Structures are given as structure tokens and as C-alpha cells.
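Pilot study result, target chain (228 residues):
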Amino acid sequence: MSRAQISALVFGVGGFGALVAATASNEWKVTTRASSVITATWVYQGLWMNCAGNALGSFHCRPHFTIFKVEGYIQACRGLMIAAVSLGFFGSIFALFGMKCTKVGGSDKAKAKIACLAGIVFILSGLCSMTGCSLYANKITTEFFDPLFVEQKYELGAALFIGWAGASLCIIGGVIFCFSISDNNKAPRMGYTYNGATSIMSSRTKYHGGEDFKTTNPSKQFDKNAYV
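Predicted structure:
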């Protein structure tokens, strides 16, 4: 098994898990620490829910019940993250089929093509996640540094950093998978031919047969015809 493919699979699957965690998280943006200290409340917002908590320990989440009232950039980020997770899932499946250690996928050339396809899918998954997280972060930072924005200001949440990390892992794994084609071409699978236990058995038979012949007829070893 190629070490490059193992590393690529670890990066790709790890990145896929990070993308799933980032998509499901509710901490895409959080209230600023200055306002949290004053009001003793914390507000977390994600792609699917808005959550709020206070110093007393109470915590409540409210999902977005309708799509039409959600802001456009949130809908765009939803689509990009769903696409990233879907591509990461299919990339993981293709990666398993393209591994040399698996018995499915056909010949080495077919496995190399499948591994390259898995790499491309992982790269697309990482780019979708990177775009979605960056779009969301750009909206937060624009509102935060806008002096005319008087509503509640937020900071970057932990889900954005998890999404960026997962996207980086997917892109790295995809690049390694794409470069693993050269390893498959340089180190083709060796073929071994089975030549026959029949030849070995026949040689043993001849050897034992000759030995039996010598033991049963020792006088013929010195027969006069042997010297002619």
C-alpha cells in the first residue's frame, strides 16, 4: 500500500469530518465579549439555529422555520456547505475504491483513475467549504467594523475555524491523491506465474524412481553394456 494514499485518505476523511461538524455547529458567529460582559448574555448563531444563554446557565435555541426570511448570505453558505459535505462523502467512497489495498476497483490503471477522481472531488469539497466560511466571515467583519451599523455586532465563531481547517485538509488530501497517480505508474504491480507443482512433483518422482531402480537392481550398475 502506498504511504501517499494512506496520508491522503487520512487528510480527506479528517477534513470531511470537520466539515460535517462545522455545518452542524451553531457557533458560526457569537456576540462580542464586551457586550456579553455588560448584559451577561451570550448569543450564538449558526446556519440552522439561533441560540442564546445567560449567566444563570439557561440555554435556548430557536431554529430557522422558514427559508424565505433567512438572509441571502446564510442561504448561500448553507448551499456551499451542503455541497462540500456531499462532495466529501463521495470523495471518501472513491478514495476507498482507489486504494491499492482494496480488491475492488479493477486494475492498477483503473484504481489510479479512481484515486485521481477522489482527489478532484476532495479539492472541490474544500473549495466549497472555504468559499462558504469566507463569505460568512466577510459579512461578520464588515458589520463589525462598520461605524454606521447600530445593531448587535458579532465575532467569528468556532465553526468558521473548523470549516477552514476541514477545507484545508480536504484540499491537501485531494492534491496528494492526484499526485499518487505517478506512484502507481512508477511502481506497477508485479505479476507472478505459477509454474507448477507438477514439475516439482515430476522431478521428485523421477528422483525417487531412479533411486528405487538403483536399489532394486544394483547389479546393472556394473553391467557390461554400461561401458559401451
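One observation from the pilot: The beta strands are 29-31, 41-45, 49-54, 59-63, 154-156. A full batch analysis is planned for the follow-on phase.
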